[in-house]
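Okay, is this right?
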Amino acid sequence: MAKRGKRRRHNQQAEDTAQKKRTREGDSGVSDEGNAVAVQASYTGSDDYTIPPPFELSSDESSKSDVDKLWKYVVNDKDWKATPIQRQLWSILLKKEKSVVGIAPTGSGKTMAYGIPSLLRQESLLVLVPTRELVQQVAAVCSKIVKGLQDSNMEKPYLVVPIYGGVDKKSQREMMDQVNDKTLAVVATPGRLLDLLKDSTFATSFQPSWIVLDEADQLSKDGDLGPQVEEILGIVKSPSTTLAMISATYPDKAKAKFEKWVDDDYILVQVDSVDAAKSSFGKIPPNLKQVLHVCSDHKKPKKLMSTLQMIQKQQTGRNVPLGIVFFARIEKVKYVSGLLEKEGIAHISLHSQLSTPQRAQSLHVFQSGKRPLLLATDIAARGINIAAVQYVIQYDFPSNLQQYIHRCGRAGRCGQEGTVYSFFTRNLKALATDMISLLEKTDAWVDPNLRALVGNGASKEKKSKGGAKPKKNKADFEKKNVKRTDNNLEDDDNEEFPELAPGRIVLKRASHVSDASSSEDENEE
């Protein structure tokens, strides 16, 4: 690390001089469904390296490249267009000259952005992800890419191996030890892979040509996953390994870890959309509509039911839209599930207390549309790629905007329209300023009550700095309550989202459901 720091200081002056030139050379106005999207690609090394321009897909059938053919095979939809992050990463990774940090909005096809070029080169691949659901999903995409490659002249067959906890470790170990003449693509959670690397002969033979850290922000900030990733890199990473770190956000706290894991001379690719906050490069896709409303915690059940009513009334055609409702605690998932059952609303749950087969079954039933509403904790907030999800409801607002971005990204995948409804309670007023900024940047409606939270917070802070609080008399109390009623800060019983239909379902008070119960365990073996 000392050597790296010395090198960075030595190169800083030259880097400052050349950075503007390199960034300008790497910038590209890539069109995404007709909208100009800025793709910034900058190189951090000291040598004179030119970043390749975004990959151009061919419309001429006679001149289609292997990437063109593979892309069309995987998406199986002639109307889909490659996204900016896909086109830029394809051109960089196909050359396999530099490691990459890729930052792009959720739903922009980052799995295929790294999966197509790495597998097309027919070299061994390791993808690390934070959850078992992501393992299954990424492995499925890789398997489809490999199937598309079967018609080409592969030197030897690919074997895509998903590795995660909750299943028999012995069978996984035996499968890894019998790879033999196959090119291996391993998709794994760090904990279980580390166990296998320590317990089998596989560790001595597996040195992947490619290592991808998908959801790199989560891998880097987690107290358990981060050290596991570092240990795995120490075992399997070689000087010839190309590393790709992929994420929807790039928070300040993660940057140091990113730079520790990646090579000194890497390419940073950022797809500009809407910043989540000053401390993050997180993005909100422009095709997502955001509707946030300030409400009291005990009124959330009624808000949820009226929102679902509104969505149902807006439905056109026979296809029922898929939606996800996010909760902070498992007990709240169970409580709301009981309410929905009483109302006859078809739904299914997903959380960490379910076994691996139960989780897989929940996702399958949800995706098939048999139960079009998924009640989930944040275990479903990252990487779950179901293109048909049209709306997300944040029953419990997350504690940070990075998680807000990931939840939002479950709707509006692949450029489709989507809507995110959020219930924001007064105890989260510390997030109000950044949330207002985020909503304004996307031209979204801003609840006046959210602005009032910022105003009240500033006022209280000013009073606290001025000395002791004055005594409150009855007149002051009544005056304060009148003002609060005028501002609707406490969420009047008749207040709803501006878009909601007038019909209501009033449910019993839910304030007895404690936030202190059954916290969700996001980490996986």
